[in-house]
Structures are given as structure tokens and as C-alpha cells.
Amino acid sequence: MENIKEKDFVVFSQRMAGYLMMNSCRLKKMKVDKDNSTKFVYFFSDNENVRKLADQYKFKIK
Asked: What is the pLDDT of residues 45-55, one digit of tens each?
């Protein structure tokens, strides 16, 4: 059986990550930003729902 690695949807904004989680998107992992140790990088499954919610978030904050 092949081990198929799922792609990640990477988020650099804490607010967007929170929005995704409040809308039932599951956070896969979180790491410290290598360029700025006071910030984090958030990883979600890259799927249609996550992308749709991210687009909605971007539209709302304009």
C-alpha cells in the first residue's frame, strides 16, 4: 500500500487560523516561524472547505 502524503494549507495569520478553527477546520500542527520567533505558522489539511473559508476570511477583512 502506498503512503500518500496529504498536502498542507499553510497559514501565517493567527486570526485566520482562529477563523478556520472556529469554522470546524482541524489544525494539524503549529510551528514557530523560523524568521520571527514571536510568531507561529499554522498547518491545516489542504481541501476545498479550508480554501473556501480562507477566501471568505480574506473577503471579510477587506
From this structure: 999 999 999 99
62/24 Cα distance (integer angstroms): 23
Contacts made by residues 34-41, CB under 8 angstroms, sequence distance 24+: 39/12, 39/14, 40/14, 41/10, 41/11, 41/12
Domain locations in the chain?
8-60
Record the pTM.
Answer: 0.85
> What one-character-per-residue DSSP string does 1-62 give?
---PPPPEEEE--HHHHHHHHHTTPPEEEEEE-SS-TTSEEEEEE--HHHHHHHHHHHHHT-
Cβ–Cβ < 8 Å for 53, 18 = no
Q: Are 11 and 41 in contact (CB under 8 A)?
A: yes
